[in-house]
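Subject: sequence -> structure tokens, single chain

Hey, anyone have a minute? Need the predicted structure for the following. Not urgent.
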Amino acid sequence: MHKRGCNAYLKIGDVARMAGISPSVIRSWENLGLTRPQRTRSKYRLYTAEDVKLLKRARFLRRVRGLNAPAIVQLLKREGSVRAIKANGSNASAAVGKKLRRLRLQRGLSLAQVADSVGISVGFLSALERSQMSASVGTLRKLARFYETNVLEFFGAAETGSNVITPANRKVLEAGPGVRMELLAWGNTAMEPHLFRVAPHAGSGESYSHEGEEFLYVLRGKLQISVEEKQYRLKAGDSFYFESSAPHQWSNPGNGETVILWVNTPPTF
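Reply:
Had a minute. Here:
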């Protein structure tokens, strides 16, 4: 146990025992925004008693009410137990709303016009522009196509990238509940490499397609992917290739986080 001032901090193993859930589940719920632990200089997570209380509540909702992880986070947000995503100049995800609003206003379009063209509700688009919600990968792709741009624009990756990108300097985008996209290279590249972190039962949302080719390698966990309505179940160590023009949809069917190296070429995702 660590102490900072008068506050006691707990390591993830301690929290797992106290909350009655595994460390992998805690990490996957963190990706959904359920907890926001402090980090030591060596990147160890440090939790508070409030985090333990919140995780116990989430465990109750999963076991007793049968809610999946994204549903639990949304419920706790509505209750005020979990903070919604707030704008942060260093967080690419929080800047997506401003970018979407700017793109719409530059074209002189109303919320209703864009929402109708993309196939989402006006209320949802308004919440996206105000950074109160995050969009799925499928929805981000539809918005990018509508605005004749690509998802890299939402990362703020127009500038030239470095040859070496450290984990701390990756551009990060939260693509809907439980999906975290970490851009591994940008600039004048022929490829668009990501590290995807997908929480249990989270995924792309609706099916989507675009130009190009895709290669993915499952580093950890499981992935279910549908390409032209044909289903594939992948596990750690499996790799997969397909043409991006084929409608595709994917999700994590497991109980732990799935981590994928995902490469698109050309970078028009």
